Amino acid sequence: MSTSLNLQPSTSRQARPLHPWISRILKGFNLRPEEVERTLWMFIFYMAFSMGMTWLEASSIALFLSEYGAEFLPWIAVVTALTGSVMGATYSWLQRVLPLRTLVVLVPTAMAAVLLLLRVGLSFSNVLILNLSVLSLTIFLLRLWAEALFTISELNTAIAANQLFNIREIKRTYPIISSGVLVADVVSGFALPLLLLALGGETAGLHNVIVVASLMMIGGCGALLYLSNRYEQAFPNTVGRIQSIDQVELTSRRIRGPLKRYTTALVLFFVFAQLLLVLIEFQFYFQLGERYDAAQIASFLGLFNGVLGLFEITTQWFLSSRLIERWGVFLTASILPGFIVLLSFLSLTQIISLLSGLLFLKFFDELLRYTLIASTGPVLFQPIPDYVRSQIQSMRGISDPIASGIMGAIILFSLWYLQRFYPGSPDLRNYFFLALTVFFGVIWIYSVWLLRRGYVRLLVLSAERGQLSGANFDLRALKQAVIGALENNSPEAEKRSCIELLSQLYPESVAEVLAPLLRRFTPKLQYQSLELMLEHPDPNYLGDVRELLDASVPPDVLAVALRYVWLTESDPKLDQLRRYLRPEVDATVRATAGALMLRLGSPQQRAEATQTLRRMLTHKRERERVKGCEALGDAVHMQALRLYIPDLLQDPSLRVRQAILEAIAATRIEEYYPSLIRGLYYSSTRESSMVGLVRLDNAVLPQLVALASNAHKPTVVRIQAWNVIGKIGTLEALDQLVVNLTASWGDTRRNILQILLKLPYENGINAVLDRLDGRRGVEDLVDQELILVGKLHAATLDLPPEELGGLEADLLRRAIEDQQSDAIDRIFLLLRFLYPASAIQAADFCLRSNVLGSIARGIEILDNTLDIPNKRKLLVILDKRPVLEKFQALADLLDREDTDRLAPSGRLRKLLDSSDYLGDWLLACCFHVARRYRWSIAPDKALGSLRHPTGFVREAVISYIAMASPRALYKLLPLIQTDPAPLVAAQAHVLLGHIEEQRRIQGTSTPAFMPSGTP
Question: Taking Cα atoms as reference points, which of 766, 715, 763, 722 lies closest to residue 741?
Answer without folding.
Answer: 722
